Amino acid sequence: MRAYGKGVGVVGKLRTNVDRLVMVSVQGEVAPPIVRAPYRTGHDGVSRAGPGTGGITYNVRVGDRAVGWAGDHVEPGVSTKHKDELANAGYNLLACIGNAATAMSGAATGARGVVTGKHGGIEHVLIDFVPEDLDKLAIGDKIQIKGYGQGLELLDFPEIKVMNLDPGLLEAIAQQDGRKLVVPVTAVVPAVVMGSGLGAPSAERGDYDITTQDEASIAEYGLGKLRLGDVVAIRDHSASFGRSYRQGAVTIGVVIHCDSHIAGHGPGVTCLLTGDKSLLEPVVVAEANIACHLDRR
Questions:
Q1: Pairwise CA distance, residues 164 & 175, whole Å
Q2: Strands 180-185 and 280-284, how do they pair?
Q3: In the predicted model, what is the mean pLDDT of the chain?
Q4: Which of 64, 128, 184, 187 counts the highest number of beta carbons within 10 A?
Q5: Within its chain, how far is the Cα of 214 from the centroid?
Q6: Distance between CA atoms of residues 272 and 183, nearest Å
Q7: Structure pTM?
């Protein structure tokens, strides 16, 4: 999936600085489910109890639907973090979508997975393992990731910022077409429905949410069909220096966790590319999902 060169790096037909990127180990462990209160009160005034963030989710993986599960902010696959706050900040920052992950302890030692998401707030890194390895993993098992991708640049598109993206996955999700970078996406999301996570000082950690409280918007933009791992475009949003509204900008991201009943929340998106719409062009393609790009299903 990766290409290394001498001098200028080339990923497919895209010229990048891949030859100058640093690959570094970062380590977390399988995190337990977290409950702050037995109920979460939704935008509709209904209090609900059920699964949320953390743990090993056996029946929700990248490629599955992101909307409609009996839970809130459900994280697919394996939720991981480091117990030390500063170490976890580095873990969440340096892990990139598409990076290789390896179980380093427990019955699943040696099992290989792939990073599929970076959740803000609790700051989990989400990893997909195949079902037979999920059954061997346990809470507390150590997971090491080859952190690789932060600092990636497109040499022919310096105005487009790249973040949170393994160089090999860049080759799969974007193609150069003249003076544009064309990215297949499953949906184009309007700025008005973006919620929790706006205003964060950096888009290199965590995610922000597509709100799913307005049924008319869900129907109009096809948000009820979103899947975990879908590559999506967010219109009139910039993630260059934090996440914010900016007319004419486009942000490309990947759906990393499930929806929510809580006001201002919904499926989470980790940012991958951001730039002006004159340079960054999303094209709707139903199969634009990292589960396909990474051969996870």
A1: 18
A2: parallel
A3: 94
A4: 128
A5: 23
A6: 11
A7: 0.94
